[in-house]
Automatic annotation (TrEMBL):
Principal cellular location given in the protein's record: nucleus
The organism of origin for this protein: Lates calcarifer (Barramundi)
Pfam families: CP2, GRHL1_C, SAM_3
Keyword Transcription regulation: yes
A single cellular component GO annotation: nucleus
Region ranges (Disordered): 217-241
Name of the protein in question: Upstream-binding protein 1
Length: 462
């Protein structure tokens, strides 16, 4: 007897061993589409392993696997009559892979898998048990793709592929004090049709499910523990959890990206080319959430994060700024993660010296303030408005000050030969590194009009 309530797109194993496709069905839902409008996926993949009973109703199923054990995945043709006629009586190709469920680990897939390869030389993360498999043709594994395998299969014949996952969930968990919680993986299958060129590049369907992998017999113990915990719960609490199904149905998902982990050399090579990095400041990304993907790549290279340009190859400035400290530590490791977080999120470093400059009228004295006497005899400063610009010096040198002033004045840097400051009794002191470094320089008010007069040759001679 079929249950009255079941999760979306759940397939129940019939007594005959076949799989029966059922739409969403809930007693309280009267707005279901007509039967002829229900859209079923063209393919269905069934992992013959039980789901955990300790999963809440609206969460994705979780399945426990034993390391190295062969598990059957049934490949089912679920097309309706007349659907996808172009692949009738033809082979299709499926690629099965084990990938990370955690988004942060997906960003560092290359580093994570390379680290696993280093610790487990000669091993693979995923294998096909060819002797036990049925109906598959030309199974292949590539030395550069340790987490994937592919095969051809005929939809008109019974097809089952047996897969073995050799990595365990705790191998990708930072070691602390023992008993660490393992990370979840996904088993994903992507199916393709043969294109005009003869290659299997026409994407047809993708589906995946969440798994955790334990050492041999560990999955059985974990399943038993979850079942015992659920038995201790009240009837009301049990209603919040899904029942445990004997098989796991892979749910539809997006195809796995083509630029996934392939090999050390290919993955580590950056195809990024750009204009000289000196044209970009180190603050272009932190100060600009609207920075483009190209600008973000340049900023990473400029700030010595070149090894992560591939990981963030699709990140704009806004995307980078949304990552938390924990995200970056997970992605880049503690050292580089904290360094990248500080570079992205930290406040600007306080300047060593601040100098204020103002625009003065050409008729005024270039270095001396103009004073006047009001009608009531009080001495006051001229009422002409002076707008000051703050120059923040990270280096206490004359060259740094001249460069910042040239930017404010909109003048070519090479045309400013000398800058003076007003000294005691109004004398002009040539600005040098020693003068720039003196702490009283921050009280100096330099005239922008002085520079312009100097360039025109009209600087007053004394």
């Amino acid at each position: 007897m079929l249950p009255l309530t079941m999760p979306p797109l759940t397939l129940l194993q019939h007594l005959s061993g076949d799989v029966l496709a059922l739409p969403i069905f809930k007693q309280e839902d009267s707005s279901l589409p007509p039967e002829n409008e229900t859209k079923n996926p063209p393919f269905q993949y069934v992992l013959c392993a039980a789901t955990s009973p300790a999963v809440k109703l609206h969460d994705e199923t979780l399945t426990y696997l034993n390391q190295g054990q062969s598990y059957e995945v049934r490949m089912l043709d679920n097309r309706k009559a007349g659907e996808l006629p172009e692949i009738t009586n033809k082979m299709v190709k499926s690629t099965v892979r084990v990938v990370f469920h955690d988004r942060r680990l997906q960003y560092t897939e290359h580093q994570q898998l390379e680290g696993w390869k280093w610790n487990r030389p000669g091993d693979r993360l995923l294998d096909i048990d060819i002797p036990m498999s049925v109906g598959i043709v030309e199974p292949k594994t590539h030395p550069s793709q340790l987490n994937a395998a592919e095969f051809l299969w005929d939809m008109d014949k019974r097809t089952s592929v047996f897969v073995q996952v050799h990595c365990i969930s705790t191998e990708f968990t930072p070691r602390k004090h023992g008993g660490e919680k393992g990370v979840p993986f996904r088993i994903q299958i992507d199916t393709f049709a043969q294109g005009d060129s003869g290659d299997y590049t026409e994407h047809l369907h993708s589906a995946s499910c969440q798994i955790k992998v334990f050492k041999p017999k560990g999955a059985d113990r974990k399943q038993k523990t979850d079942r015992e915990k659920m038995e201790k719960r009240t009837a009301q609490e049990k209603e919040k959890y899904q029942p445990s199904y004997d098989t796991t149905i892979l749910s539809e998902c997006s195809p796995w990206p083509d630029n996934a982990y392939v090999s050390t050399n290919q993955a580590a090579t950056s195809s990024f080319t750009s204009t000289p990095l000196s044209t970009y400041t180190t603050s272009s990304v932190p100060d600009s959430p609207t920075a483009s993907i190209q600008d973000a790549q340049k900023w990473l290279l400029k700030n010595r994060f070149s090894s992560y340009t591939r990981l963030f190859s699709h990140f704009s400035g806004s995307d980078l700024l949304k990552l938390t400290r924990d995200d970056l530590v997970q992605i880049c490791g503690p050292a580089d993660g904290i360094r990248l977080f500080n570079a992205l999120k930290s406040r600007s470093v306080c300047p060593r010296l601040t100098v204020y400059v103002c625009q003065e009228s050409p008729r005024e004295s270039p270095l001396l303030e103009r004073h006047s006497t009001s009608e009531n005899g009080e001495h006051s400063i001229s009422s002409s408005l002076r707008v000051y610009h703050a120059l923040y010096l990270e280096e206490l040198t004359a060259a740094e000050l001249i460069r910042k002033m040239a930017c404010v004045c909109s003048l070519p840097l090479g045309k400013i030969n000398q800058v003076y400051r007003q000294g005691p009794t109004g004398i002009h002191i040539l600005l040098s590194d020693q003068v720039s470094a003196h702490r009283h320089t921050q009280a100096l008010c330099l005239s922008i009009s002085t520079l312009k007069q100097y360039l025109r040759g009209s600087y007053p001679q004394r």
